[in-house]
Description:
Elements: E1 5-9, H1 14-30, E2 33-40, H2 58-95, E3 100-106, H3 109-116, E4 122-126, H4 143-149, E5 154-157, E6 167-170, H5 175-186, E7 195-200, H6 205-220, E8 225-230, H7 234-245, E9 249-253, H8 259-265, H9 268-275, E10 280-283
Parallel strand pairs: 1-2, 1-4, 2-3, 4-5, 6-7, 6-9, 7-8, 9-10
Antiparallel strand pairs: 5-10
Amino acid sequence: MSTGTLIALVDGSKYSESVCHYAAWIAKRTDAKVKIYHVLGRREGTDRQDLSGAIELGARSHLLEELSELDAQRAKLSHAKGRAILEDAQAIVEADGVAVVTRLRQGDLVETVLAKEETGDLIVIGKRGEAADFAKLHLGSNLERVVRSCRKPVFVANREFKPVSKVLIAFDGGQSSLKTVDFLSRNRLLAGLPVTLAFAGVETPDIRKALENARDTLSAGGFNADIVIENGRPEAILGKLVEGRHYDLVVMGAYGHSRIRSLIIGSTTTEMVRTCKVPILLMR
């Protein structure tokens, strides 16, 4: 990913500042352009509801007109708030030395992202949204929808920005792992940073060979990669490695199983994003 475009999504939450700093950090490493979007919900952006069909008695007419005016006022306030959020975001990114354009849109967030993702190379979104302080153990309501729907890589920002200097790549030998390694070896996003290929589970000759092949691919891309194999549940092993070895970023494939399967047995992706205190780059 170089000289491309990244799409950053902000909602005015505490995570939005981190999203902006990471967007600027990525842009400077890859020469990417930055577009920042704030998406108003459909009701937020409605200037006036058509209540004429509900007016049955003349006595109700005045009340319905007042309600309609209130809806219009709320819509104007929502637009003003959205523009203010974008202005703040623009100021943060520009203060980091990166040019940025902003877009205020109305509608469903995921539909907006899907409509625009072909114009971008990577999506940056906060781990949690506006209710972050009240739901510290829950992911943002739109995050999983965005990750499951997008075909582009998604960078999930944590609450506090920190420049990335050490990277952990979760590797299981599957298609998304291979795609992740190929992606990293071919672009400048993490160029020059030390990386570790980590496998959680029982070591087999096939797994060892796959890890060595992945290391060779990364080496061809200029990386000095280590290999770590530890037996255990991926979310537990990866979390322990992040905490114990002080990685600044986790890169992993997103949602390797179907949505129904994930609802039944849980998802390593969801668990890692929920509990990990560093940003995660998710590859589909």
